[in-house]
Amino acid sequence: MHYHELPLPAALDNLVAAVWVASVPEDGAKWVEQEAVPDGCVELIRRHSGRSVWRREQPEVFVTGLATCPARLRLGAGSRFTGVKLWPWAWHLLGGAPCRSFADNWIAIAGDSPIATLIEGTEREIIERLIETFAPVAVPALAAALLEEPGVSAIARRASISVRKLQRDFQRDFGMPPRSYLRLLRFRSAMTGVHAHASLADAAAAEGYADQAHMAREFRSLAGVPPSVARSRAKGPFV
User: Fold this and answer.
1) Which residues of the chain does CATH 2.60.120 include?
2) Which of 1.20.1640, 3.30.70, 2.60.120, 3.30.420 is the CATH number of 2-134?
């Protein structure tokens, strides 16, 4: 399987985490199985060819919700995809369904809807359309705090809200407490960190885990494999 993420402009900071393309060779097995790991994002996906199955057959355009466990995908030979990883608040700014309503699942997107048009055309056209769509939108103060602060209390202080309100808003909007979402963000960073550091112990320390064993437990829970396996075979969010 091929997976590639495109560089993004600063205009999409704190709104779009990635624009990506993926494909499965036509001349291989009829079906390829892949595990997609949680990363704290909502993904808007267009399948250009082939077939894909997660829980059930997927349509041409769909969006996957916030994941809290690995998703086992079946991808047909010759399938080709373009996707946009949106931070959940950006998805809500687009008028998308509440994140809590389709966590660990996906929902279909009507092909003629404004959201579906965001992933039409080339990857460069998609990025330009995202910039245009989000240009008049004010990024929530909470967004940068979530992506930059290490704990719930620090996030609440930076966003100028109480911890209690932060917890209520998170449960209402995302269907999980803020601490659980921060766990997903740390794991997202660790998936990159296991490649960037000389040793797994260094990666665990850099990503804020108590020790290498703690990181290993998180990888088994959220990726279904130990860090060493993710390090050797991960392609983006796929292991």
Assistant:
1) 2-134
2) 2.60.120
Residue 97 buriedness (CB in 10 A; 0-12 / 13-18 / 19+): middle
Per-residue model confidence (pLDDT) at position 126: 98
DSSP per residue, 112-157: TSHHHHTT-S-HHHHHHHHHHHHTTPPPPHHHHHHHH-SSHHHHHH
Q: What is the pLDDT of residues 193-214, one digit of tens each?
A: 898 888 999 999 999 999 999 9
The pairing of strands 31-36 and 42-49 is unpaired
Q: Is the pLDDT score of 170 beyond 90? A: yes
Residue 233 confidence (pLDDT): 87
* Strand-pair partners of 57: 53
The CATH code for residues 178-233 is 1.10.10
User: How many CA atoms lie within 13 Å of 167's alpha carbon, on the beta-carbon side?
Assistant: 7
Could you give the CA distance from residue 111 to residue 61 in angstroms, rounded to a whole number?
Answer: 6
pLDDT of residue 137: 92
Give the integer Cα–Cα distance in Å for 229 and 167.
34
Give 36's Cβ-side CA count (13 Å radius). Answer: 24
Residue 159 backbone phi and psi in degrees, to 5: -85, 0
